[in-house]
Structures are given as C-alpha cells and as structure tokens.
Amino acid sequence: MDLYVDIVSSSNSIFSGRVKFITLPGELGELGVLKGHVPLISRIIPGMIKILHHDDSEQNIFVAGGILEVQPNLVTVLADTAIRAEDLDESKALEARKKAEDALKNSKNQADISVVEAELIMLIEQARAAKKFKYKNR
Predict the structure, then answer these.
(1) Is 36 exposed, middle or buried (0-12, 13-18, 19+ CB in 10 A)?
(2) Is residue 138 scored above 60 in pLDDT?
C-alpha cells in the first residue's frame, strides 16, 4: 500500500494522491514521512511541503501554517493557506509584507500587533519560497 496524502486549505483541496515521500515544515523542524510512519499530530509552520512522486518527480506547495496528521499510510494537512509553488509571486508577497510592516508601525493594540507579526512571518517565508523556487527552476 502507498502513502496517501491530502493537502487542503480553508478554500480548497490543493493535492490529493499517492506519493513516495513527503517533507513538511514542522514546529520543531522538517518532518519526513514514508508509508508506515508512526501516527503523529503536529502543528506546521510557514514553509514548503515537498512531495516526491513515484516517478521521482517533485512537487512543492507553500503552506502558511496549519495542522498535520500522520497515520501509517495517510498524511492529512489542514493548512491555513496553501499555494502551489508555481503560483507563488515573490513581488506580491513583498508588497504585502511592506503593507504589513506599515500596519505594524501604526498598531497600538497588542492583539493587532500579534496578528500582524504572524502575517509578517508568513509573508517573509512565502517570498523566500517563491524566490527559491524561481531560482531552482531557471
């Protein structure tokens, strides 16, 4: 039996299928999962999910964070935001980052500051992932 992976965001299903291997940005570091992995639930942080297909092709998906559930033959990712690497736009992420930085400068409320700081972390990682993917596929 293969490892089956489901990656969904709040708005849609990003990936569903059988894979050879998957790596994810876990809270305590990068997690690698093969079929037969021990059951696990973990938070994931902003970063790239790398999927290795059976034909050894690779697919990359940026996630802004979320929850990971691993069963021996099933990986489920519930992501806050998920974007296929080829759809990432570094310039849009950098523009949004500038707006978030401006909002942070003008924020007085601690709750607002925390939300904007979390968004900034996600946007920094998104821009980094877009740049890395663009450079890798030249």
Answers:
(1) exposed
(2) no
**17 closest CA partner among 5, 32, 33:** 5
Whole-angstrom Cα distance, residue 127 to residue 24?
18
Class of domain 3-85: mainly beta
**Ramachandran assignment for 82, one of left (phi > 0), alpha (psi -120 to 50 degrees), beta (any other):** beta
Crossing angle for the helix pair 90-106 and 110-136, to the nearest 10 degrees: 160
Domain ranges of the chain: 3-85, 88-136
Tens digits of residue pLDDT in 9-35: 988 899 999 999 999 999 889 999 999
Tell me, yes or no, if the pTM score tops 0.70.
yes
Pairing of strands 74-79, 3-9: parallel
SS3 letters for 17-43? EEECEEEEEECCEEEEECCCCCCEEEE
